[in-house]
Design a protein that fits this description.
The structure holds two protein chains of two kinds.
Chain A (H helix, E strand, L loop, with lengths): L4 E3 L2 E4 L5 E6 L6 E8 L3 E9 L2 E5 L6 E5 L5 E5 L8 E8 L10 E2 L3 E5 L1
Parallel strand pairs in A: 2-11
Antiparallel strand pairs in A: 1-3, 3-8, 4-5, 4-9, 5-6, 7-8, 9-10, 9-11
Chain B lengths: L3 E4 L2 E5 L4 E7 L6 E7 L5 E8 L4 E4 L2 E6 L4 E6 L8 E9 L2 E2 L5 E6 L1
Parallel strand pairs in B: 2-11
Antiparallel strand pairs in B: 1-3, 3-8, 4-5, 4-9, 6-7, 7-8, 9-10, 9-11
The chains are: A mainly beta, B mainly beta.
């Protein structure tokens, strides 16, 4: 069974630009969550999608948005990039999501560098 | 707001030692708690999931316990190996959100 796939693995963008990251969950998983990991703040929850609906959202500005498609694939968009957005962005999928009891499985992440 | 603390922040041990990693959390209203491993530059690998009704879970050389009422979980690693070197993260699930601790960076020396 294929794991969670995130593309691209690395991205370099300039301040003010926007970026879209993609996540393909494990087959059969309907929940996709996104996390930001930085050396200073650690792992922080961005949002969760379940069956194309945003179910929960962390404490991030509106520049961070996401969506989920009918095949459960998800995209995350960050507009007007700032230097502080440089981070490893991790996607996780699960069968039930955070409303249930099944474990989360993570992808290898997208490393975003903003210059 | 859930806060998760992991002690120690870093640990260096010789191969073969048994070790205990600690995790404490402030809000005991959790559904479950998951332990993860992260290798440098990589994503998280799920190690163990303990449901709130359970006291412990075992997988190979790993054993995780949960005391929900006191807000504590421990990860026990038996007979450590150099391949166990990684950062270990605990994450309780509550309020429809996983909250992560800062992790314990483990180095097992041959």
């Amino acid at each position: 069974k294929a794991g969670v796939t995130q593309t691209p693995r690395y991205l370099i963008k300039t301040r003010g630009q926007q970026v879209t990251l993609s996540c393909s969950p494990i087959s059969g998983h309907r929940s996709v969550s996104w996390y930001q990991q930085t050396p200073g703040q650690g792992l922080q929850f961005l949002f969760e999608y379940f069956s194309e609906t945003q179910r929960n959202k962390g404490n991030f500005p509106g520049r961070f948005s996401g969506r989920q498609f009918s095949n459960s694939r998800s995209e995350m968009n960050v507009s007007t990039l700032e230097l502080g957005d440089s981070a490893l962005y991790l996607c996780a999928s699960s069968f039930t999501g955070t409303g249930g009891r099944s474990p989360l499985h993570f992808g290898n992440g997208t490393r975003l560098t903003v210059t | 707001k859930q806060e998760v603390t992991q002690i120690p922040a870093a640990l260096s041990v010789p191969e073969g030692e048994n070790l205990v990693l600690n995790c404490s959390f402030t809000d005991s209203a959790i559904y479950n708690l998951q332990w993860f491993r992260q290798d440098p530059g990589k994503g998280l690998t799920s190690l163990l999931l303990i449901q709130s009704s359970q006291r412990e879970q075992t997988s190979g050389r790993l054993n995780a316990s949960l005391d929900k009422s006191s807000g504590r979980s421990t990860l026990y690693i038996a007979a450590s190996q150099p391949g166990d070197s990684a950062t270990y993260l605990c994450a309780p699930l509550g309020g429809n959100m996983l909250t992560f601790g800062g992790g314990t960076r483990l180095m097992v020396k041959p």
